[in-house]
Specification:
The protein is of the alpha/beta class. The protein has eleven helices and five strands, in the order H-E-H-E-H-H-H-E-H-E-H-H-H-H-E-H. The protein has a domain of 142 residues: Rossmann fold, CATH 3.40.50.
C-alpha cells in the first residue's frame, strides 16, 4: 500500500446519510489500570476491533515523519500533539479497512487510550459514534504504578521504567483524560471495577458491550 493511498482517509464520515460510521466503545482509565490487557482479550472476540493508541504509535515506521515525531515526544515522556495523533489514527483505521481486518458495518470499534482528552474527543466526533464509555477504576494508585513497572520489564518499554515519567502521566490523566467522563452523556458511562483478576474484569466488560453488539450488528460469520 502506498503512502498516497493511505492518506486518502475521507474528511467526513463514510456514511454521511446516517452520521458517524464507526460504532464505538471507549476504554478509559488511568495508566496501569489494565486497559491494554482487556483490549488484547477483547481483540479475540468476533465482531470486535480493538485499537490501542500506544500500540498504534509504536507500530509507526521509526524512519517516517510520524515515527520520528512519536520518538521525539516518547523519549521525553510526552504525548504526540492532538492534531497529529488524530491524523495518525485516521490513516491507521483506513489502512485496517483496506486490509479488510476491520469492517465498520459489522465490527464494534473498541478504542483504548484515544481519545485521551476532551480536545481529542471533539476532533474524533465526526468519525465515531460513542455508544458507551467503560470507565475502569482502581482505587490504589501504587498498585497501578507497580503494574507499569512490571510491564516495562516484560515488554522492554523504557518510557514505563522511569518513575518520574509514570507519575507525570498519572497527573496528565487526572488533568486531561478523566474530565472526559463528564464530557459524554452520563447514561453512556459504565463503571468497571479493575481491582480484580483479568477474567473478572473481562466479564464485567462483556456484560456491558455484548448487548451493544446484538443491537447494532448482525451476528458475525465464524
Amino acid at each position: 500500500m502506498t503512502m498516497e493511498k493511505k492518506l486518502l482517509f475521507p474528511d467526513k464520515p463514510l456514511f454521511e446519510e446516517t452520521g458517524p460510521c464507526f460504532q464505538s466503545v471507549l476504554l478509559v482509565g488511568p495508566p496501569g489500570v489494565g486497559k491494554g490487557t482487556q483490549g488484547k482479550l477483547l481483540s479475540h472476540v468476533p465482531g470486535i476491533f480493538h485499537i490501542s493508541s500506544g500500540d498504534m504509535l509504536r507500530e509507526l515506521d521509526e524512519n517516517s515523519e510520524y515515527g520520528q515525531l512519536f520518538h521525539k515526544y516518547a523519549t521525553k515522556g510526552k504525548f504526540v500533539p492532538d492534531e497529529a495523533t488524530i491524523r495518525i489514527w485516521k490513516e491507521y483505521v483506513w489502512s485496517k479497512i483496506e486490509e479488510k481486518v476491520y469492517n465498520p458495518e459489522t465490527d464494534l470499534l473498541v478504542l483504548d487510550g484515544i481519545p485521551r482528552s476532551i480536545a481529542q474527543a471533539e476532533l474524533l466526533s465526526p468519525y465515531i459514534n460513542v455508544i458507551q464509555i467503560l470507565f475502569m477504576v482502581c482505587e490504589d494508585r501504587e498498585v497501578m504504578f507497580e503494574r507499569i513497572r512490571g510491564r516495562a520489564l516484560k515488554e522492554n518499554r523504557h518510557d514505563d521504567a522511569d518513575e518520574l515519567v509514570v507519575r507525570d502521566r498519572w497527573d496528565v490523566y487526572k488533568r486531561l483524560t478523566e474530565p472526559m467522563i463528564d464530557y459524554y452523556p452520563q447514561e453512556t458511562v459504565r463503571i468497571i471495577d479493575a481491582d480484580a483478576i483479568p477474567s473478572e474484569v473481562l466479564s464485567q466488560i462483556l456484560a456491558s458491550i455484548v448487548p451493544i453488539q446484538k443491537k447494532c450488528f448482525s451476528p458475525p460469520l465464524l
